[in-house]
Amino acid sequence: MPPSDASFAVPEAPPGFQLARGLTAGRYPLLSVFPGLDRLATASRLQPEPRLRSELFQRTEIALIEEDVWMYVSPWEIPKTARGRWHPVLSPGKDCIVVGLGHLRESPDFTLYLDIFHELRHILQRQDGAQLFGSSASYVRRPTEVDAYRFVVNEAKALGVSDGFLRDYLRVEWIDDGEFLELLSAVGVEPP
User: Fold this and answer.
1) What is the number of domains present in the chain?
2) Do 28 and 64 contact (CB within 8 A), yes or no?
3) Residue 46 is part of which domain span?
4) Which of 26, 96, 134, 189 fits as disulfide partner to 61, beta carbons 3.0 to 4.6 Å?
5) Residue 114: exposed, middle, or buried by beta-carbon count in 10 A (0-12, 13-18, 19+)?
6) Residue 17 in domain
7) Cα–chain-centroid distance for residue 54?
């Protein structure tokens, strides 16, 4: 495993980023969990068209669950690749982002900021016809993942976030060392 970067500070979330950390399990409008998210500059870069941006933030739901998960876009049906190993929350025909309560309550604000915009990027991809689930390609080679990570990495870099923090953020447990280095290269983060 590449060495860990322990010498970085966790960045502050951008001004205006808010969280409702005290909510209980259930479904909520996106802006009830992340109030004012639609007014951040990142939201305008995510979806420049005001009407479409308003629809995205008004129609997307958040499902808060007790399971130990980060965040993911709720599939409309069980993906064939789940093979009984993954039992996602389904949301047929509805845009919903699933968030683990532990993640919402305990993770740094900046991590949640990056995660929610990563997942919103996936919602837009699906609205544009992309398949989010079922690809046989490696996680780090899926165009949807590379695009979503690249979007949040660019947002973080515009805020002056260090590559050390970004390496830590991108080091997810479901990829191996080689894939990690491939992801760093794909999204423009210097390797350790």
Assistant:
1) 1
2) yes
3) 26-161
4) 96
5) buried
6) no
7) 19
Collapsing DSSP states into helix, strand and coil, what is residue 187?
helix
pLDDT reported for residue 3:
45
Q: How far apart are alpha carbons 49 and 153 in whole angstroms? A: 22
CB-based contact 120:44 (threshold 8 Å): no
How far is it between the farthest Cα atoms of the chain?
Answer: 45
- Indicate the pTM of the whole model: 0.93
> pLDDT at position 1, please?
39
* pLDDT, block means (10 residues), the chain with 192 residues: 58 96 98 98 98 98 95 92 82 96 97 98 97 84 95 97 95 90 95 92
123 in a structural domain = yes
Residue 86, pLDDT score: 80
Going across the sheet that includes 71-73, the strands are 26-29, 61-65, 96-100, 71-73
Tell me if 11 is assigned to some domain.
no
The length of the chain in residues reads 192
